[in-house]
Design goal:
Layout lengths: L4 H7 L3 E2 L5 E7 L3 E2 L12 E2 L2 E8 L3 E6 L3 E9 L2 E6 L5 E6 L10 E4 L4 E6 L5 E9 L8 E2 L2 H7 L4 H6 L4
């Protein structure tokens, strides 16, 4: 039986996320890495890893943003989700997260540290329940939400997609 987005939002106690969609942190490692052992650019110590539930509904999107860590996405339930990843060279990769490998979908996808990325439910989908594991662990000090105008100027070949998946 396919559950509804409302069911998962209530059952998992998800709340609105700054980039769009719904989330709840479910794990933050008590172990940490000292700042002097992290790559350049981290402003402080970080948990070794963190994990969240993340849900998008049709018509919603997770706006283009980037973080300083790798982010591993996991598919749990619902419809496929597309993750749009732009690397520093301007190469666009579309990760198709879902449960049907015959349609090019995977249960997991990795977004590399420092790359811009956004996501939305695949066409005609109702919702996607996913999870994200970040290592070193997520901290809002490492989060940057993209300016649509600035990102489109940097990657003009994707200006249409960037306009669709940014908020200003």
């Amino acid at each position: 039986m396919k559950r509804s987005a409302a069911y998962w939002i209530e059952r998992l106690q998800l709340t609105g996320h700054a980039e769009g969609g719904y989330f709840r942190e479910i794990y933050r490692s008590p172990m940490s890495v000292a700042r002097n052992h992290l790559p350049e650019g981290f402003p402080g110590d970080r948990s070794i890893s963190t994990s969240i539930y993340f849900l998008l509904t049709a018509g919603q999107f997770s706006a283009f943003h980037r973080i300083r860590s790798d982010e591993l996405w996991h598919f749990y339930n619902g419809d496929p989700v597309h993750i749009y990843e732009l690397d520093r060279r301007g190469v666009l990769t579309i990760h198709r997260l879902g449960a049907n490998p015959d349609h090019g979908e995977n249960f997991q996808a990795v977004v590399r540290a420092g790359n811009w990325f956004a996501s939305r439910v695949a066409e005609e989908g109702e919702y996607a329940l996913t999870g994200c594991t970040v290592a070193p662990g997520f901290d809002f000090a490492d989060f940057e939400l993209a300016s649509g105008q600035a990102l489109a100027a940097q990657y003009p070949q994707y200006a249409g997609l960037i306009r669709e998946l940014t908020r200003g």
